[in-house]
Design goal:
Layout: H1 2-20, H2 26-30, H3 35-38, H4 51-61, E1 65-71, H5 75-85, H6 88-97, E2 99-105, H7 107-110, H8 115-123, E3 131-135, E4 143-146, H9 151-170
Parallel strand pairs: 1-2
Antiparallel strand pairs: 1-3, 3-4
């Protein structure tokens, strides 16, 4: 008899929870799913350019490029995106000082990388992910931040990277 009363009380409680729970409205259930509604939230507020388009823009505007060497499987790359690039004032500084170019490693996913990714990795001596490189398209002279040393180091690199690169670029023997 006690078991019956216990089940009766539990069933009544579950019915109450289901009746008072927030269910989607009819409009929400029947609304068409848009691409924006399905898309995952952005990890970064920077408008990253593809390699070819970004290099053309950097040449046209005369700004140094910020190459972000990254990979989907790279945990420290995601930390850099979440803790640095997603910060609005840092993102604004990056957009102001550089033409941001994402260089995506796809070796694990597809078994190969794009020729332009391989050329950049070779030019800048890529050794791991994440790597940030400030340079101009087709120029080997650069300033680099390799790996994840924390938010502070990344932000400092981004804040000083343009000036440091321009100082290096001014040295005798550096071709523009």
């Amino acid at each position: 008899m006690r078991v019956f009363r216990f089940l009766h009380v539990c069933a009544a409680g579950l019915v109450a929870v289901f009746l008072t729970g927030a269910a989607p409205s009819r409009a929400e259930r029947t609304a068409p799913k848009t691409a924006a509604a399905k898309a995952a939230p952005a990890r970064t507020s920077i408008n990253w350019r593809a390699i070819v388009a970004g290099e053309a823009e950097a040449k046209k505007k005369g700004k140094p490029a910020l190459y972000f060497f990254t990979a989907d499987w790279c945990g420290p790359c995601h930390l850099l995106e979440d803790q640095v690039f997603a910060v609005p004032d840092v993102a604004a500084q990056v957009e102001k000082d550089f033409v941001p170019i994402v260089v995506q490693d796809r070796m694990r996913e597809t078994g190969r990388n794009a020729p332009e990714m391989l050329a950049l990795a070779d030019r800048y001596g890529l050794r791991g992910f994440p790597t940030l490189v400030v340079s101009r398209p087709k120029l080997a002279t650069n300033v680099t931040l390799e790996g994840w040393e924390g938010r502070g180091a990344a932000v400092e690199f981004l804040r000083s990277g343009k000036k440091r690169f321009l100082d290096v670029e001014k040295k005798p023997g550096v071709k523009k």
